[in-house]
Amino acid sequence: MAHQIKAKTFKESIYSMEGISRKTVEEHLKLYNGYVNKYNEVMQKLEGVDKSTANQVYSDLRSLKVDLTFAIGGVKNHEIYFSHLGGKGGNPNGSLLKAIEANFGSFENYIIDLKQSGLAARGWVWTALDLDYWYLFNYLGDAQNSFPVWNAVPILALDVYEHAYFIDHGAVRAAYLEAFVKNLDWNEVAGNYETALKRLKA
Questions:
Q1: In order along the chain (202 residues), what is the average pLDDT of each group of 10 residues?
Q2: In this structure, is residue 14 part of a structural domain?
Q3: Coil, helix or strand at residue 53
Q4: What pLDDT, on a 0 to 100 scale, did the predictor assign at position 188?
Q5: What HEC string does 7-51 produce?
Q6: Domain stop point among 35, 52, 83
Q7: Which helix (H) or strand (E) holds 200?
Q8: Do 121 and 99 belong together in one domain?
Q9: Nearest residue to 53 via CA among 44, 45, 62
Q10: Which listed site, 10, 16, 91, 135, has its alpha carbon 20 to 30 Å from 42?
């Protein structure tokens, strides 16, 4: 039986953010739900695909499996993204703040690097904990399925596709990045960090 997933629901505060409108959130969630549906559709099609024709140039198996990574990337990236929005911004504290300061020099340096990475990326930025070398880093990617680093756990996801900000800010991505930071729920990010640490210590 094909593996299937269900779309998650997110806290109500994401609909009343400063600088990211309800309209943007509603339209953005439609895209997220679309990724969920496409993941389920592709998984069902894989159940009946003719594997005997597998080929690296073109085959149904190759096409479905490549597109599956884009769909599940869209699901997971957006679930991280929406789970830590709807907060009051400010600063993190505790072990997350200490880790940020140790890896970036200061929280202010981290935010600068996050925003600059957001200007440089074509699709996403992820703050991730590398479980092999035990450090935090802001990675960027150009597509839903381009997170490039094995054994690094994303604790923060920043969507910089135009659909995330064009309704509210037009082409001014920098204004959206300011709004994103102002609406972060650092408790959620800290929870992601603690979960990643547990994997590190396992």
A1: 97 98 98 98 98 97 97 97 98 97 98 98 97 95 85 97 98 98 98 93 72
A2: no
A3: helix
A4: 98
A5: CCCCCHHHHCCCCCCHHHHHHHHHHHHHHHHHHHHHHHHHHCCCH
A6: 83
A7: helix 186-201
A8: yes
A9: 62
A10: 10
Q: What tokens were used for 125?
A: 């930025």
Q: Which amino acid is at 35?
A: Y
Cα 132 from chain centroid? 21
Write 72-75 long-range contacts (CB < 8 A, 24+).
72/35, 72/39, 72/145, 73/143, 73/144, 73/145, 73/146, 73/147, 74/31, 74/32, 74/34, 74/35, 74/38, 74/144, 75/5, 75/32, 75/35, 75/36, 75/39
The most distant pair of C-alpha atoms in the chain lies apart, rounded to whole Å, by 55
How many domains does one find in the chain?
2
Which amino acid does the sequence have at 63?
A: S
Give φ, ψ of 130 to 5 degrees. Answer: -80, 120
